Structures are given as structure tokens and as C-alpha cells.
């Protein structure tokens, strides 16, 4: 195969790969923006706020190191949702139940159907765990959006590298002699075999 043909094929192929990476990068940026917008708008609609600075609930050593930085703020991001779920709701539910899970309390409640206090505790834990799960879902989608952003950056960098390499390929194409072969020794042995 002629060197010029080989260089032209590689350079054109590089431009095709660069175009695909640019499209992928654009779609990933759109995915990032869409996910962030959805997470923020859905969390904002719930009107969940961290306790105010100086609040008694911030004095708990299991809560304060994680929550204090967000004191008084509304939960609007995935990172805030995770913090609120894991370091506020979970801690308070664990303190209320002595570390028992919803399923453990529910089983006890089924064994003691007349225990209204336990039934009320089961309902509170169910609601708390449901809210916690929803907040962690918001965090998971937010994290996917962050990964999409990083992937878009990688796609754009890859596209830039491919464009540069394709440019070098076209530059080399212009400098290569017209009769130069890609693998000259193989080309000569093919000619000798045919003769």
C-alpha cells in the first residue's frame, strides 16, 4: 500500500473519530446540565433545610462535623442530599430506635399489634427511611451527572488529540514521496513471488 494512501486513510479516520468524540462530549455536557437541573429543582421543591447554626441538633458529635458546613442552607444539591440523609436523618433514626432497622421494628410491631407506641415508631422510621432513600436517589443521579461531566471533558480532550494527530497525518501525507510503500520489504517480496 502506498504511504500516501495509508496516511490519507488514517488521517480521515482520525477526523471521523474526532467528530464522534465531539458529539459524545456535547451529549455528555447536556446530560450533566439536565441531571443537575432536575436534581436541584426537585430538591428545592421539597423545602428541606439543614438546622440553623447554633441549633441543639448540631451539637450531636455524630452530626456536627458533617452538617455544620451547611447550617441553615436549603438542600439543593446531590452532595447536600447525601449529607442530610446519612448524617442527619440516619443518625436521628438510629438514636430513636436504638440502632434497630425498620424491618426489625416492623417485625416487633407485628408481634405486638396492640402496642401503639411501637406502631407510631414504625411509621416514623418508615417515613424517615423513605425520605432518606429519596435523598440518596437524588445523590445517585447527581453523581451520574458529575461522571457525565468528567466523561465529556475526556471526550473533548480525545477529540482534540485526534484532530491534532489527523493534522499531522495530512501534513505527513504532503511530504511523503508518491512511490513510497508502507512496508517496502513486503511489497518487494510480493512482486518477486508474482514473477
Main sheet characteristics? none
Our measurement of the CA-to-CA distance between the termini, rounded to an integer number of angstroms, reads 19 Å
Can you tell me the overall shape? elongated
* Average pLDDT reading: 89
Fraction of helical residues: over 70%
If helices are DSSP runs of H or I spanning 4 or more residues, what is the number of helices?
6
Could you say how many structural domains there are in total? 1
Q: What fraction of residues sit in β-strands?
A: under 5%
Q: Which structural class is indicated by helix and strand composition?
A: mainly alpha
- Strand segment count: 0
Would you list the SSEs in sequence order as H and E?
A: HHHHHH
Specify Rg, calculated over alpha carbons: 31 Å
Low-confidence stretches: none
Description:
The protein is mainly alpha-helical and 195 residues long. It has one domain. It has six helices and no strands. It has helices at 3-46, 64-67, 78-97, 102-111, 116-175, 184-194. Helix 1 (3-46) packs antiparallel against helix 5 (116-175) and helix 4 (102-111) runs antiparallel to helix 5. It is elongated and about 95 Å long. The two termini are 19 Å apart.
Task: Describe the protein's topology.
Blueprint: H1 3-46, H2 64-67, H3 78-97, H4 102-111, H5 116-175, H6 184-194
Features of the shown structure:
195 residues; 6 helices; mainly alpha; elongated; 0% strand
Brief characterization of the structure:
With 195 residues, the protein is an all-alpha fold.
Amino acid at each position: 500500500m502506498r504511504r500516501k494512501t495509508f496516511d490519507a486513510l488514517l488521517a480521515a479516520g482520525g477526523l471521523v473519530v474526532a467528530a464522534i468524540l465531539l458529539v459524545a462530549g456535547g451529549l455528555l455536557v447536556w446530560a450533566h446540565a439536565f441531571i443537575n437541573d432536575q436534581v436541584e429543582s426537585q430538591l428545592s421543591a421539597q423545602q428541606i433545610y439543614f438546622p440553623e447554626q447554633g441549633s441543639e441538633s448540631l451539637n450531636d458529635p455524630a452530626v456536627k462535623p458533617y452538617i455544620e458546613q451547611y447550617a441553615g442552607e436549603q438542600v439543593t444539591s446531590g452532595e447536600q442530599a447525601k449529607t442530610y440523609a446519612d448524617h442527619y436523618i440516619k443518625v436521628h433514626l438510629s438514636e430513636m430506635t436504638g440502632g434497630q432497622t425498620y424491618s426489625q421494628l416492623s417485625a416487633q410491631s407485628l408481634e405486638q399489634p396492640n402496642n401503639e407506641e411501637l406502631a407510631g415508631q414504625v411509621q416514623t422510621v418508615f417515613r424517615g427511611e423513605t425520605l432518606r432513600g429519596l435523598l440518596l436517589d437524588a445523590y445517585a443521579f447527581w453523581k451520574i451527572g458529575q461522571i457525565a461531566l468528567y466523561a465529556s471533558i475526556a471526550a473533548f480532550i480525545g477529540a482534540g488529540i485526534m484532530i491534532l494527530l489527523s493534522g499531522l497525518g495530512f501534513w505527513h501525507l504532503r511530504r511523503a514521496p508518491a512511490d513510497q510503500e508502507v512496508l517496502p520489504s513486503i511489497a518487494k517480496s510480493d512482486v518477486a513471488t508474482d514473477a
